[in-house]
Amino acid sequence: MYLDAKFEQLAEYDAAIAGDVDADACIVGFGELPDQVFSALRAACAGIGMPDPVIVDVSLVGEPAHATFVVEALDPAAIIVADGIAAAMLSDGYHAKLPLNAATRLLGRPFVAFESFQGDLSDDELKQRDWALIKTLKRA
């Protein structure tokens, strides 16, 4: 029954959502994630025990309030934001300044947002920082 209600609420945003809507982890980005970014984030999620994350492309949902609605309707255990544009949309939608390149909590959920996860992949130090941040999402 819960899953049916979730599908019904998210039907309007189907084009923006890829993967299992009941996944533990949600990756949010603005635009389609490049293969390299998708593969790295998917592997990172698997590494913290949250394989097969759901992906949300907020460029397809319209205004920030809709981006927030989609994330809340998905109700993930953890949220990863891949880029600063998506983070800015969620900041507007949640009416909260969400820090970049830092781990925090968002309405009780572990949350991490990157200014540019894609850009970080070309720098070994930044990749290590990003992995350390993603590890904070792991369930105890």
**CA distance, first residue to last residue:** 28 Å
- The percent range for strand residues is 15-25%
Estimate the mean pLDDT confidence: 94
Biggest sheet overview = 6 strands, mixed
Rounded Rg: 14 Å
Q: Can you identify the CATH superfamily? A: Uracil-DNA glycosylase-like domain
What structural class should be given to the helix and strand makeup?
A: alpha/beta
Number of helices: 6
| Second CATH tier, the architecture | 3-Layer(aba) Sandwich
Would you count the extended β strands for me? 6
Anisotropy-based shape: globular
SSE order and pairing:
Layout: H1 2-10, E1 17-18, E2 25-29, H2 35-47, E3 54-57, H3 64-74, E4 78-81, H4 84-94, E5 102-106, E6 109-113, H5 117-120, H6 124-135
Parallel strand pairs: 2-3, 2-4, 4-6
Antiparallel strand pairs: 1-3, 5-6
Structural commentary:
The chain is an alpha/beta fold. The protein has a single domain (2-17, 25-135), classed as 3-Layer(aba) Sandwich (Uracil-DNA Glycosylase, subunit E). It has 6 helices and 6 strands; from the N terminus they run H-E-E-H-E-H-E-H-E-E-H-H. Strands 1-3-2-4-6-5 form a 6-stranded mixed sheet. A hairpin with a 2-residue loop joins strand 5 and strand 6. Helix 3 (64-74) crosses helix 4 (84-94). The protein is globular. The mean pLDDT is 94.
Care to give the gist of this entry?
This protein is α/β, with parallel strands linked by helices and 140 residues long. 43% of the residues lie in helices and 18% in strands.
